[in-house]
Amino acid sequence: MNSFLQDLRFSLRQIRRSPGFMVTAVLTLALGVGANTAIFSLLDQALLRSLPVRSPEQLVVLSGTGKAWEGHSSNHGGGVEQSFSYPMYRDLRDKGTAVFDGLIATAPTSVGITRDVTQNRVSELVDGEVVSGNYFSVLGVKAAQGRLLTASDDTVPGGNPVAVLSYAYWQTHMGSDANVAGETISINGAPFVIAGVAAPEFQSAVWGQVPDLFVPMSMLDVVAPGKGKRLEDHTDRWMNIVGRLKPGETPQHAQMAIAPLWHALRAEELKALGSQPQRFVDEYLTRSRLLVAPGSRGLSYSRESLEKPLYAVMGMAFLVLLIAAVNVASLLLVRSAARVREFSLRYALGASARRVVQQLLLEGVLIGIVGGMAGLLIAPLCLRVLVQRLSTDGPTAFSTTLDARLLAFNFAIAVAVSVLFSLAPAVQLLRPDIVNSLKQQTTTASGGTLNFRSLVVSLQVGLSVLLLVGSGLFVRTMQNLRHVDTGINTSHLITFHVNPLLSGYAKEKIPALHQQILETMAALPGVQAVGATNDAELADTGHSGDVTVEGFTAPPDEDFRIEIPYVSANFFHAMQESVLAGRSFSEDDDAAHPLVGIVNETFAKHYFTTPAAAVGRRVVGGDGKQGEYMTIVGVTRDAKHGNLRDAASPTLFSPMKQAKSADQLYLYLRTATRPEQSFAMVRQAMKQIDPGLAVDELRTMDEQIDTTLGNERMIELLAISFGLLATIFRGGWSVWCACVLDDAAHAGDWHSHRAWVNAAGSIAAGAGRCAASGRDWDCAGDSLLGAAGAVAAESALWSLIGRSADAGRRDFVDCRSRCGCGDCAGATCVFGPPDDCAACGISFSGFAGDRKRRQRIHGIVAAVFD
Question: Most exposed of 390, 675, 736, 788 (fewest Cβ within 10 Å)?
Answer without folding.
Answer: 788
